[in-house]
Amino acid sequence: MSGTTAGYQGMEAVKNKQWEKAIPLLDKALEDSNSPAWLLARCQAHQQLKNYEQALDDACLAYHSAAERGSGNSRKQMIEAQYRRALVYYKMGRYADADCCAKWSMLLAEGRPAREDDGVEKNVDANGNYTVTWEDAVADTKGQPGQANGSKADILANATNATGSSNTGFESDWKRAYTLRSQILGMMRTTPEDHPGRKVTVTKVPPKPEKKVVKQPEPASTIELTDGDNEPAQPKPELPAPGSVPDEKMKSRVDYYQTNQTITISFFVKDVKKENLQVRMAPKQIQLSPLPRAVAPYVQPGDREATSTLLLAGEIDPSASRWTVTPRKIELTLQKATPGVKWATWGTEVIGPQDDDTADSSSSSSTPAPTATTTAAAPAPAPAASKPTAPVYPTSSRKGPKDWDTVSKEMGGDEEDANDVNYFFKQLYKGATPDQRRAMVKSFIESNGTALSTDWEDVKNRKVETVPPEGVEPKKWES
User: Fold this and answer.
1) What CATH number does the domain containing 324 carry?
2) pLDDT number for residue 404
3) Which residues are in the SGS domain (predicted)?
């Protein structure tokens, strides 16, 4: 693969937020060229993976590379480099350094000279602490590009590009850096006076780091020749040995929801071949095989790692259960052996097959269909005739579903209000913490109103899937 191809693929990986995939591609591309665009892309990937020192080196090198090239994109890339410096310093807790770099990004966006002595880093007191405040940053809009007030002088200045308030073409970059400054200085409000993050240690033109050469693995010493060819065949890449990847890394993400009659489990694994998939159901477990493993590419259909066993938290009726396969997941709709019983959770995934005498020895391969057990199961006990079980609603929370009717009554209010759905959600949102509110809004919107979570740690780094009620198929609006 050429360096240019690797560079474009690395940029595309960053665009798709595939940070770990992007870095080796961009390493390859940067062996022969200090492209500012590739350096900035790798900086972003390192920053997302919390490799802050590497990200800072890439941002500084990108600034120098853009300045030396002097192309039509150079100012844009220098603005981006200063912004990336600010973002990395902010993540490192060096707030004074971060605000200086964000301000320099704004000044470049206003069209100011790159080497102008603006004195930004000199705003310190006798103790060396940065003196710029949040209020100062919010009021700092004098040089905002594209904001002329319409006077004759401003119109003339815009036409001749004589002031920093003209249309520079970098208005969005200016606003982005301006927004970041409000976050940085907002954090400084609660930072102790003796915190090292209040000290300024940066310069406008960053020191130029040395280009780091990434050594590629050496080819194997012995190479076989292909039949009829005079050139040696390329050695095959070495794959990890079976068993070298921990089981925890091979486990898939699972979502579920339940009704009084069924529990639906979404098992997220990509590129499963429906015609080859074997699903073995038993009252207390389900076995899926073969499954592709992104973290273990050596897995073959007969390997232990190609099988997942789902140990269920309750008992099901395999003969009345079914499953479907999509490019992104396997969805299991399981009939509860005891209708009306609420499961606290769906269960757990175990890598490899597990012994279970009641598992069906046959398997489904061509079309998804329910599988029956080979041993007679004891008749399911009749549901208790005491009082009806409260309905259980879909949830993406890992802590299990909630009985929202009980929650509604605990919130107070008269009986008429408690039966009003709008009143219930208003009360729930009103009494939630900021993180719980964020989780509620994110999960409700992303799931198209089919899931509600109050666990921000669970939903903040993933998209909440649409989990429609049984018998309902989600469709996009345009379809």
Assistant:
1) 2.60.40.790
2) 54
3) 392-479
Q: How confident is the model at residue 130 (pLDDT cuts 50, 70, 90)?
A: very high
When divided into structural domains, the chain yields a total of 3
Question: Smallest Cα–Cα separation from 200: which of 116, 86, 44?
Answer: 86
The verdict on 52 and 168 lying in the same domain is yes
The answer on 405 and 361 residing in a single domain is no
The answer to whether residue 332 sits within a structural domain is yes
Asked whether residue 228 carries a pLDDT value surpassing 50, the answer given is no
Higher local confidence (pLDDT), 75 or 162: 75
User: Which residue is it, tokens 């938290």?
Assistant: 313
**Chain segment 408-437, per-residue pLDDT in tens:** 455 545 544 544 556 667 777 777 888 888
Q: Which domain holds residue 465?
A: 398-479
Q: Is residue 15 part of a domain?
A: no
pLDDT at 373: 35
Residues 347 and 406 grouped into a single domain: no
Q: Which of 416, 417, 405, 395 is nearest to 469 (CA)?
A: 395
